[in-house]
Design brief:
Elements: E1 4-8, E2 11-15, H1 24-35, E3 42-46, E4 51-52, E5 72-77, H2 88-100, E6 104-107, H3 116-125, H4 135-147, H5 155-158, H6 162-169, H7 178-188, E7 191-196, E8 201-205, E9 213-219, E10 224-230, E11 242-243, H8 247-262, E12 273-276, E13 282-284, H9 285-296, E14 301-303
Parallel strand pairs: 1-5, 7-9
Antiparallel strand pairs: 1-2, 3-4, 3-5, 6-10, 7-8, 9-10, 9-11, 12-13, 12-14
């Protein structure tokens, strides 16, 4: 992920969602949306003293052009290039419209009801369909897959016997995690990327399976939400399914996670306080909660 800025007559702007592998035409499209300078009229200057970049090959990678994190690009408009004949006020309006039409990656908030993982995965794999009642069906699906493969889903993998796990995952008060994400990645034949806001990393399930599709979730330590790319203030449906060749969306997801981390929008699972909703005992962190569940069979916890 590159941290870049650009300066133009209209102001200074951060250039987000770009990596060293992004193409020049992607950079120019972002600049056009932010500054209102059309791609065909752009002159991009970099370095000190500033020198013009060669814009003849839009497929060139930013890394190949010598663009690095921390760089600031100077944007000039070449008046000799064909441009709109509309007056300045109209051009500003067009610029604002273009800017609003730029798709952004955002979090879709789902309820924290012990089934947020299943609701989130259903939302992204179904192309943005919110169905809060999907969890029982998905839990049952996972149980059937696990029960049908005793060798792959042994006690050593599941942390409990195969039958105990199947009974456990069907309960509405249990939480899903890495095992369930892995199973659903195989079932839906897509890479599921989980972006962690505490560590600002991405865990990619199904990364080596050769899938062509990718979906993304964001995770704060105890809660999952789906990620979608959408155009603000638009009726255009959001995009939730991406190509596994789309590295820009991964960079954008990491930016979201980093912003959430800076705002401390995460739960430290080793320090957060819980209460057992069965016996009302106070607990600290997931380790104590796990031990309490093992000793008592109680698995319904609420964060204090």
């Amino acid at each position: 992920m590159l941290r870049l800025r650009c300066k133009a007559r209209s102001g200074s702007f951060p250039l987000s969602g770009l990596t060293a592998h992004s193409h020049l035409h992607e950079l120019q499209a972002v600049i056009a949306a932010l500054t209102g300078v059309p791609v065909q009229a752009q002159r991009l200057l970099l370095g000190f003293p500033p020198s013009c970049l060669d814009l003849s090959d839009g497929e060139q990678r930013l890394g190949e052009l010598g663009i690095h994190s921390g760089d600031t690009l100077i944007i000039e408009e070449d008046a000799t290039k064909p441009n709109s004949d509309s007056p300045t006020a109209t051009k500003r309006t067009v610029s604002n419209s273009v800017r609003e039409a730029v798709p952004v990656l955002a979090r879709k908030v789902v309820p924290a009801d012990n089934s947020c993982l299943f609701t989130s995965i259903y939302y992204v794999v179904e192309g943005g369909v919110y169905e809060p009642g999907c969890a029982p069906e998905m839990r049952n699906l996972i149980a059937q897959i696990v029960a049908s493969d005793l060798e792959s889903y042994s006690e050593a993998v599941l942390g409990k016997s195969n039958q105990e796990y199947c009974d456990w995952i069907r309960r509405e008060d249990t939480w899903g995690g890495a095992i369930e994400v892995s199973i659903l990645s195989k079932f839906y034949l897509c890479e599921i990327c989980v972006v962690d806001t505490q560590t600002v990393r991405i865990d990619r399930f199904g990364e080596d399976a050769g899938y062509s599709k990718r979906v993304l979730l964001i995770y704060d330590g105890i809660h999952y939400d789906p990620l979608e790319r959408k155009i603000l203030n638009s009726d255009i449906p959001p995009q939730t399914i991406f190509s596994t060749n789309d590295d820009v969306v991964l960079a954008q997801a990491l930016e979201l996670a980093d912003e959430a981390r800076r705002k401390r929008q995460f739960t430290d699972v080793n320090r957060f306080t819980l209460r057992c909703m069965v016996c009302q005992k106070g607990l600290t962190g997931q380790v104590e909660a796990r031990e309490h569940a093992k000793e008592t069979g109680h698995t319904n916890f609420g964060e204090v």
